[in-house]
Design goal:
CATH class of the largest domain: Mainly Alpha
Mean pLDDT: 87
Largest sheet: 2 strands, antiparallel
Number of helices: 15
Shape: flat
Strand content: under 5%
Number of strands: 2
Structural class: mainly alpha
Number of domains: 2
CATH topology of the largest domain: MetI-like fold
Low-confidence stretches: none
CATH superfamily of the largest domain: MetI-like
């Protein structure tokens, strides 16, 4: 006996199946755009390409051994660690201090709240080009300011000197990301109950005490979000380095994302690039897991 179409759809659209049906399009999109590429990249890291991209031969951990023997890879890891520390630390601090200032009452506050976002909304390629011009040794603004201040001895080729190139790029990255941190912190500060500050003033608390015992504890969830996002941005950064120095001079500014790009499209070593991608994915996962665990635990409590 055939089941009428109305009965079939009635059973399918019962309450138990509705959540699955609503999330099915998202699951399909994630499977195609995220899960499949990650899985394919993982298997590629254990393979050797023979002919076309889909003709592979399993070679075990040879790609990882080749990767770990490459001195440029370790230089990229070292530079990535330094780059992430600089951008996360100073992007976080500048964003928090900017939010504190913009949360006060003063004339022109609305203008500065909009103006501070300019560096964040500017496309990375444009930002990198502007900073590359600022650092230019002959006619760049940085050296011009130092000359006008009679500090010509400090003038240098900022992006051509291995001692200053990575730090110069980090400054550009901090300028790019700190408005995002400021916006998130400002949103968090404005959500804090003003009665807490009024009650603390009645009890004789000064501004520092209000900051330490009211503002910072209330911003704890926001702080975790900002640190998490800045960390991921730092690990995946490439555009600024690629445009400003291309990883030079002498690989002094190469980072893991750029290393993967060069191995893939510069030397056609897709297997080695895939193994480096897996290593970077594991590192990112090592930072993500504690954050997710901590956040889930706090929500349950």
């Amino acid at each position: 006996m055939k089941v009428p179409a109305e009965v079939f759809w009635h059973k399918l659209l019962k309450k138990d199946f509705m959540p699955f049906l609503f999330t099915l399009p998202l699951i399909l999109i994630l499977s195609i755009l995220v899960i499949y590429p990650i899985t394919d990249n993982f298997f590629l890291s254990f393979s050797k390409l023979e002919g076309s991209f889909y003709q592979r031969r399993f070679i075990g951990f040879d790609n990882y051994l080749r990767l770990f023997r490459d001195s440029v890879f370790w230089q990229a890891m070292k530079n990535t660690l330094l780059y992430v520390c600089l951008t996360v630390l100073f992007g976080f601090l500048l964003g928090f201090l900017s939010a504190l200032v913009l949360n006060q009452q003063f004339r022109g506050r609305a203008f500065f709240r909009v103006a501070i976002m300019v560096s964040w909304i500017v496309p990375l390629i444009v930002s990198a080009s502007v900073w590359k011009w600022l650092y230019q040794s002959d006619y760049g603004i940085m050296n011009d300011i130092l000359r006008r201040l009679s500090l010509s001895k400090l003038c240098r080729s900022w992006l051509s000197d291995p001692d200053t190139a990575l730090f110069s790029i980090a400054v550009a990255a901090i300028w790019q990301v700190y408005p995002f941190a400021a916006l998130i912190f400002l949103t968090g500060m404005q959500s804090i109950d003003k009665n807490l500050y009024d009650a603390s003033q009645v009890d004789g608390a000064n501004h520092w005490q209000q900051l330490l015992f009211i503002t910072l504890p209330c911003l704890s969830p926001v702080t975790k979000i900002v640190l998490f996002i800045l960390l991921l941005w730092g690990l995946n950064a490439m555009t600024l380095v690629y445009v400003m120095t291309g990883g030079g001079p002498a690989n002094s500014t190469i980072i893991t994302a750029l290393y993967i790009y060069q191995k893939s499209f510069g030397f056609s070593r897709f297997e080695v690039a895939a193994s480096c991608s897996v290593v970077l994915f594991i590192i990112a996962l090592a930072f993500i897991t504690p954050y997710v665990t901590l956040t889930t635990t706090e929500e349950k409590e």
